[in-house]
Amino acid sequence: MKSRKYKRHTKSQRKHRNLRALSFGLIALFVLGIAGYLLFAALSPKTPSPAPNTIDISASMGGFSQNVIRVRAGEETTIRLTSLDNQYHTDGGGQHQWAVDELGLNVIAPPLGSNFATFTPDTPGTFTFYCDICCGGRANPTMQGTLVVEI
Predict the structure, then answer these.
(1) Regarding the domain delimited by 54-150, which CATH topology (the fold level of the hierarchy) does it fall under?
(2) What predicted TM-score, i.e. pTM, was given to this entire model?
(3) Alpha-carbon distance 110 to 117, whole Å?
(4) Is 9's pLDDT higher than 80?
(5) In three state form, how does the secondary structure of 59-126 look?
(6) pLDDT tens-digit profile of 20-38?
(7) How much is the average pLDDT of 49-69?
(8) Is 135 left (phi over 0), alpha (psi -120 to 50) or beta?
(9) C-alpha to C-alpha distance for 119 and 76, rounded to whole angstroms
(10) Sheet of strand 96-100, all strands in order from the earlier edge strand to the far edge
(11) In whole angstroms, what is the distance from residue 67 CA to residue 31 CA?
């Protein structure tokens, strides 16, 4: 009789232990899922995905990654500027700018981040783009370039 009671008790304990393990597993899975979602949302880019007329330009203390950019008149174009400098950069706090006065364009990228502007140039011509936030501004030849709008 004792052995039968003991077996029931053990079976009940096993059931209870399995239920606790299953509950713990489900809670852990739920917490990991939320953490993964929040991590993905925090690290996902806030800039548009590359489009056919997206031009990526990076800027750092060394200047722009491209000093001549060619676009077509009448075609929508996106300029995506990425700053390679961090917020501890002593000149400009890591921000960089891509501006063209004649076209009213002014893109400012945050430290180690990106920003963009989409525009459609109407008139062909040659325009100067520059960064006037840091690094000597317009006086620095590496912080300026030429935007060529072609027919």
Answers:
(1) Immunoglobulin-like (2.60.40)
(2) 0.64
(3) 14
(4) no
(5) EECCEECCCEEEEECCCCEEEEEEECCCCCCCCCCCCEEEEEHHHCEEEEECCCCEEEEEECCCCCEE
(6) 989 999 999 999 999 888 8
(7) 86
(8) left
(9) 6
(10) 68-72, 144-150, 125-130, 96-100, 105-109
(11) 48
Count CB atoms within 10 A of the CB of residue 71. Answer: 19
**Vertex 148, ends 143 and 149: CA angle to 5°?**
140
For 42-64, b/e burial (b = at least 16 CB within 10 A) is: eeeeebeeeeeeebebbbbbebb
Beta-ladder partners of 77: 119
| Cβ(32)–Cβ(26) below 8 Å | no
DSSP state of 51: -
Express each pLDDT in 78-96 by its tens digit.
999 999 988 887 667 889 9
125 neighbors 149 (Cβ within 8 angstroms): yes
How confident is the model at residue 11, as a pLDDT?
78
Please list, in sequence order, all residues whose beta carbon lies within 8 angstroms of the beta carbon of residue 124, skipping any fewer than 6 positions away. 73, 149, 150, 151
Q: Would you kindly state where each structural domain of the chain is located, as residue ranges? A: 1-44, 54-150
- Label residue 17 by pLDDT band (50, 70, 90): confident
Tokens coding 149: 């709008």
